[in-house]
Amino acid sequence: MKSGIRRAGAWLAFALLLVLPARAARADLLDEAWKRGNDAYFRGDFAGAIAAYEQLDRQNVASGDLYYNLGVAHFRQGSLGRAIWAFERALGVDPDDEDARFNLAQARKLAERRVLDKIENAEREALWIRVATFFTTSTETWLFVGLYLGCFVLLFLRRRAADDSRAALTAGAAILGTGALLAGILLLGRMNLDRIPFGVVLPDMVAVKEGADASYRTSFEVHAGLRVRLLDRDQDWVRVRLANGLEGWLRAEDVGRL
Fold first, then answer.
1. Domain 11-114 in this protein, CATH class
2. Using one digit for the tens of pLDDT, what is the confidence trace for 214-244?
3. Domain 198-257, architecture per CATH
4. Please, where are the H alpha helices in 161-210?
5. Considering only CA atoms, which of 70, 59, 62, 55 is closest in space to residue 6?
6. How far is it, in rounded angstroms, from Cα 224 to Cα 156?
7. CA distances from 72 to 8, 42, 88, 231 (A)
8. What is the pTM of this model?
């Protein structure tokens, strides 16, 4: 776990844009909250750091650095579900943030170890989700474009090549074409996945109910950091679906929307 927080946030660039005098006070408040959160963290006051960072979050400051620091503070406090949610949000802002990706993986491993004897393998993410999210969207796009263009380049060269070279060029074009097809399917899956509303379970363990009320019978339990699909909402409850198709209701406060 990379536990160091970031002293300067991307939100500062946003604050610098607040050039109108009427907004200068808000920029000062954002800067003060950021410094207060960092100071609290370095004193070991993780609850204070979280409170300061969440103040910024409530101001709709969309910053990868903010979410990263929030995730580290939650992790240090032992709130793995909220840490995982924060790191997921950081990656939503900057998919190439390797520190956030590393910490997300470590937090998920720790969350799974905590409840490994209580969960079923079917609750883990579906294979297609893991494959579709292995690379970033930009990487998958460039991979598809590169393979697609490479296939046509080889086909073009085949028309002008000597007879003894055409077989090799044909085989190469077929390989690249197949790769482009697979990359296209992967990209399409990622694009569809990005349109699906997902959330992250926040408590260490929480009961999933058959209906939108605590009086309903418990269907099963889920653990912190589990990604669930959001299907419906009924007042303070949300209906969720697991990768294996199981569905049920959770309190909205127990799920961090991505």
1. mainly alpha
2. 888 888 888 888 888 898 899 999 999 887 7
3. Roll (2.30)
4. 163-195
5. 70
6. 53
7. 15, 12, 12, 29
8. 0.55
